[in-house]
Amino acid sequence: MESVIKEAILSYIESNNLITEHQHGFVSDRSCLTNLLEVLEAWTRILDSGYGVDVIYLGYKKAFDTVPHGRLLQKLSTFGIHDSTLLSLEDRQIRVTVRGSYSHWVEVMSGVPQGSVLEPLLF
Diameter of the chain by CA atoms? Predict the structure, then answer.
């Protein structure tokens, strides 16, 4: 079911030009490799023009866990996607187990569903 939802969202986003041409992570015919090739080409062009290139690499620890549900749902709503029940974001709870003892259940307020085919798209 999630694959069907993903394809419908991607189709809508692509047909309405709601995604930048610089996105490579989950768009058809684009990948990390195409991203790398485009960047390498741009850097080569800049260096050939006599300029320098400075590069900063950032890593986002647990980035997929930090997406606020409210902001994500608002963004999807601006794209015309209003039925959030399909995305399994509501009524999600977690608890911790330590040596057989359980914490109280706590509502999850952020993060995209881990292991879901929707995870990269929603991020």
Answer: 64
Instruction: Reduce the DSSP state of residue 68 to 3 states and report it.
Output: strand
Lookup: tokens for 13: 């986003």
Q: What single-letter amino acid sits at 46?
A: I
- Counting Cα atoms < 13 Å in the Cβ hemisphere of 24 gives 11
pLDDT digits (tens, 9 = 90+) for 32-69: 899 999 999 999 999 999 999 999 988 877 888 888 88
Rounded CA-CA distance 113/6 in Å is 13
pTM of the model: 0.60
CB-side exposure of 5: number of CA atoms within 13 Å? 17
Q: How far apart are CA 53 and CA 51, in angstroms?
A: 7
The DSSP call for residue 103 is -
Tokens of 18: 């709601």
CA atoms within 13 A on the CB side of 53: 12
Q: Which CB contacts under 8 angstroms, 24+ apart, belong to 57-61?
A: none
Residues constituting the chain: 123
